[in-house]
Amino acid sequence: MIAILKRKYNNLISDRKFSEILTGSAFALAARITAVGLTLVSNIVIARFYGAHAMGVVAMVTSFLMLVTIFTVFGTSTSILRLIPEHIARHSATSAFKLYRQAQYFVAAVSVVTGTAFFFASGVVADKVFSKPHLSFFFALAAGFVVFKSLMDLNTQALRGLKLIRTYAIMQIVPALAMLVILLTGTYLFWNPNNPVYAQLAAYAVTAVLGALIMDLAFKNRMMTADAVQPMTVREILSISLPMLMTASMIFFVGQAGVIMLGMFRPESEVGYYSVAVKLATLTAFMLQAINSIAAPTFSELYHTGRIDDLFHVARKSTKLIFWTTAPILLVLIAFGRSILGVMFGKDFTVAYPAMVFLVIGQFVNSISGSTGHFMNMTGHQKVLRNIFTCSVLINVILNLALIPRYGINGAAVAGMTSMSFTNIYLLVYIKNEFGLTLGYVPLLRP
Q1: Burial class (CB within 10 angstroms; exposed 0-12, middle 13-18, buried 19+) of 43
Q2: Whole-angstrom distance, CA of residue 392 vs CA of residue 406
Q3: Helix (H) or strand (E) holding 95
Q4: Pseudo-torsion of CA 442, 284, 412, 246, nearest 10°?
Q5: What sections of 282-307 are H helices per DSSP?
Q6: Across all residues in the chain, what is the average pLDDT?
Q7: Distance between CA atoms of 193 and 198, rounded to whole angstroms?
Q8: What are the backbone dihedrals phi and psi of residue 438, each rounded to the nearest 5 degrees, phi first?
Q9: Helix and strand counts by DSSP (H, E) for the chain
């Protein structure tokens, strides 16, 4: 057995490209596990000290900010992942820095304007969208942090473009750690029923400022006075970013539509139960996210140098790794999920168990499909990906409208599971038809 494991390990590390992904993923995975653990502790504190109502308010405010910042970032957080390494390779670090700075200024300006507009429209959002006028204060407060959330997303992804994997891994932990520290401080020293919301927003601000400082320092250490610069206008950046914006918005709607639409039709407590189910179910996705954070630049490099066989070889190995690391989590959540909910969050939260199971199944389909979304973006198929996600969103919204009024959080979970499964299966079929090869991996169904 030891000899077999040793041989498999040597096979993995002898593959240079996959070894690079594996090493980088180890850092990203460790960071992701740490962040998830810190987030779970924060959720337990909120559930125990502030109740399901507070969980629901935090979930709605967070979803609101995520929705708004998708459009303020305008897809640049994905496009610079491709453009920064491209400019460094073809031109210079200075050229990449000027590109990044243009994107940063654009995102900051759009965020300030958008945040101001939503500040004055907070009453309309709370009353007309969520049918909860008493939450207008929270939406007005969140509007003031749009710029921080936007810059946080941009800076964190830019670190991946610079291949600062360890720093990127640390930045994955910062929001969760800041949230927990501020929440505990407020709970024990300055107790206020709104502390969870204050802590979440403050964590975004801390991460945004820290990320901006790190990016400036990282670029200054690489730049030289003699560097060649290839100018790129904001319009040119946005022409690449726009399809990615559409895809990002669709991914958000698929992932967060349940929270938003539950907020429209059901009380805050149900939103709180559902948000806990989502957080536990997405534990099965952290390995996929860790590998995606490292694999995307490698996919782009292999595809654009014409090494298609190597591309699929690396992609399939990545999917296999994802499967074997997420399958145990899937089984534990299904077998012991009800007890986990009761022990960690309280008996009231056990009502979220069926919803969690549906969501876990959707995440399992996601894991056995591999890095389909990044594969499409990095190989120039971002418009096709956008169209597929558009169909997925329509399925999700229609099912939510049909199921939530009658079945509550279980209806939202079925809608999420169905749309996620549709997206991944469709992408696998498209990639198979386009390239004659597949990214998917299921034991016993393929050699």
Answers
A1: buried
A2: 22
A3: helix 93-120
A4: -80
A5: 286-304
A6: 80
A7: 10
A8: -130, 155
A9: 18, 0
Pairwise CA distance, residues 419 & 414, whole Å:
9
Q: How many residues does the chain have?
A: 447
Q: Give the residue carrying structure tokens 């999917």.
A: 319
pLDDT band at 388 (very low <50, low <70, confident <90, very high): confident
- The token pair at 209 is 């400022």
Sole residue written with tokens 């699929």: 312
Domain limits, the chain: 8-435
**DSSP state, 125?**
I
- Ramachandran region of residue 41, left (φ > 0), alpha (ψ -120 to 50) or beta? alpha
Share of the chain above pLDDT 70, in %: 85
Tokens of 90: 């073809």
Residues whose CB is less than 8 angstroms from the CB of residue 220 and which lie 6 or more positions away in sequence, other chains included: none
The model carries a pTM of 0.66
Query: Which conformational region is residue 436 in: left (phi greater than 0), alpha (psi within -120 to 50 degrees), or beta?
Result: left
Q: Cα 111 to the chain's mean position, in Å? A: 19
- Amino acid sitting at position 62: T
Give Cα 152 distance to the centre of its chain.
Answer: 13
What's the CA angle centered on 224, arms 221 and 225, to 5 degrees?
140
